[in-house]
Design a protein that fits this description.
heterodimer; A: 257 residues; mainly alpha; B: alpha/beta; Rossmann fold; 6-stranded mixed β-sheet; 4-stranded antiparallel β-sheet; 10 strands
Chain lengths: 257, 253
């Protein structure tokens, strides 16, 4: 007789095994960040690739989200005669939630997929094996610089996203909703607390780590030619997004409590 | 003669299949051993076990008499510096120019200055007769033969004690393949190193080998000097050398 719970159990064991493998990989990646040799040039190159070149996509995302958020809060607030809360809720929403989460999701698409595709291609074309035979540890040369760069640059990107997002809300509020510009900015800064910004930056650092580690993990373990690299890229994006959203809730709950 | 590299009783199972079932090979300094065998018989796995890219389930990999499979990682890494490897597809790093590919070990493992490493890379390019005007281009811009030459230059730049070649002539036209074979013979002689190659290409095997070993069913089924290949008396070797579908080896189709 077929046990209906068997496939569920197998699936659950598979998920737990995957979490275990990813955790071990992430641990090795962290250890590689601090054990010599440190490839500083690679780290700087990754800071440029992951951080600097993500600025346009992060900026565009933030400005439109800030603008849409202001409009929605205005409409919602109008139901309670609370339109004046637009600047307060925009800055709160952007710094605590939307800034880090949307930056994380955008970078999951741009960076995690890129890392998975690059390292995956290196795996299937034996470049990782070649690196090992050349007495260079791929964890230290390839993975540690990417993980470190993503962890450190995503908070900077989120700071930029916060500013641009608030400006998006400001532009809509002033130009379309007849808010006074000076009053809008005064309300924004008076309402904002340092812990709102800190929460966003902590989230950003964790998301940066997840994005790079997941991309590297999927790429490093890819096999089966172009199909395998494609699968690794998809898994990197999906895995990063799911993990970002789950961890976002946990961090928020931790800070709120 | 003492073996520079010795594989003893190597066993390896992959996805439930016994790929290697007690492989024994050894090669002395200045000698070239070629392993032949059909597809899926474990030639690449043998090479990966020898190189430390794969951990055997059982057996020993001895380099100058020391078992590298039991060494702590940092000591094993030091022993691995005696190795040079030419990969089947070249395995050149796409993101780096040709000279930096060749000098990769010198720059990132041996910490030699970039200018000195570049000089040595150019010298290695001359040795393998790869035009130095290609030093600053990306590997993707090189032809298959040039990529093999660049891979060979990368393998020999640190003057290894043991050189490995994985299908060195696969995908090359016969003239380029012969040129690569000549280079391999010349490099092995120049460096006085031990060489282990795997190939299907019999003209290549005859040219670069002092000795040939045939791998089948996870074991070495025949080994002898290259000159005795045609008189081996082994039905599997005879079938493989003749390239016949009928015989003790079943064709995989």
């Amino acid at each position: 007789m077929i046990n209906p719970f068997a496939p569920i159990g197998r699936g659950l064991i598979g998920i737990l095994a995957e979490i275990g493998r990813f955790s071990a990989f992430a641990g090795q990646a962290v250890a590689s960040c601090f054990a010599p040799p440190i490839f500083f040039g690679q780290f700087l190159r990754q800071c440029m690739a992951i951080g600097y070149f993500s600025l346009p996509v992060i900026g565009l995302t933030a400005v439109f989200i800030g603008a849409a958020l202001a409009l929605n809060i205005y409409v919602g607030g109008a139901r309670f005669n609370a339109e004046s809360f637009v600047p307060n809720i925009v800055v709160l929403g952007i710094t605590r939630e939307l800034g880090p989460v949307l930056a994380g999701l955008m970078l999951a698409g741009r960076v995690s997929a890129g890392i998975a595709a690059e390292i995956g291609t290196m795996r299937v074309t034996e470049q990782l094996d070649a690196m090992t035979t050349l007495s260079t540890d791929p964890f230290k040369y390839l993975i540690a610089p990417r993980v470190l760069a993503a962890t450190l640059t995503l908070p900077l990107l989120v700071m930029v996203a916060d500013i641009i997002g608030v400006m998006g809300g400001y532009l809509v509020a002033v130009n379309s909703l007849d808010f006074n510009g000076a009053a809008y900015l005064r309300n924004t800064f008076n309402f904002l607390e340092s812990q709102d910004v800190i929460l966003g930056l902590v989230k950003a650092a964790v998301f940066g780590f997840i994005i790079a580690a997941m991309g590297a993990y999927q790429g490093y373990n890819s096999s089966g030619g172009a199909l395998g690299v494609g699968r690794a890229t998809t898994n990197a994006v999906v895995g990063s997004i799911v993990l970002i959203l789950a961890v976002n809730y946990l961090i928020t709950a931790f800070f709120v409590e | 003669m003492t073996a520079k590299l010795q594989l003893s009783g190597i066993k390896k199972q992959l996805r439930g299949r016994q790929v290697l079932d007690g492989v024994d090979i050894d090669v002395a300094a200045g000698r070239s051993l070629v392993i032949i065998g059909g597809s899926g018989q474990g030639k690449s796995v043998t090479l990966k076990c020898a190189l430390g890219l794969m951990k055997p389930d059982a057996g020993q990999v001895l380099v100058d008499g020391a078992d590298v499979t039991r060494m702590p990682p940092e000591i094993r890494a030091r022993v691995m510096r005696k190795f040079g490897m030419l990969f089947q597809g070249g395995a050149l790093f796409d993101s780096l120019p040709v000279w930096e590919n060749i000098a990769f070990r010198l720059i990132y493992a041996d910490k030699i200055s970039r200018s000195d490493a570049r000089e040595r890379a150019i010298e290695a390019m001359r040795k393998v007769r790869l035009a130095t005007e290609f030093a600053d281009v990306r590997p993707i811009e090189l032809s298959g033969g040039m990529q093999k030459r660049a891979g060979l230059a990368r393998a020999i730049i640190a003057k290894p004690d043991i050189l490995f070649f994985d299908e060195p002539t696969t995908g090359l036209d016969p003239i380029t393949a012969d040129a690569i074979n000549d280079l391999i013979v010349e490099m092995v002689k120049d460096l006085g190193c031990a060489a282990v190659s795997i190939t299907h290409d019999m003209p290549s095997a005859r040219k670069i080998a002092d000795e040939i070993a045939m791998l089948h069913g996870g074991r070495i089924v025949w080994r002898g000097p290259t000159t005795t290949l045609d008189t081996s008396g082994n039905a599997m070797v005879e079938q493989f050398v003749a390239g016949r579908a009928d015989g003790p080896i079943q064709a995989v189709v």
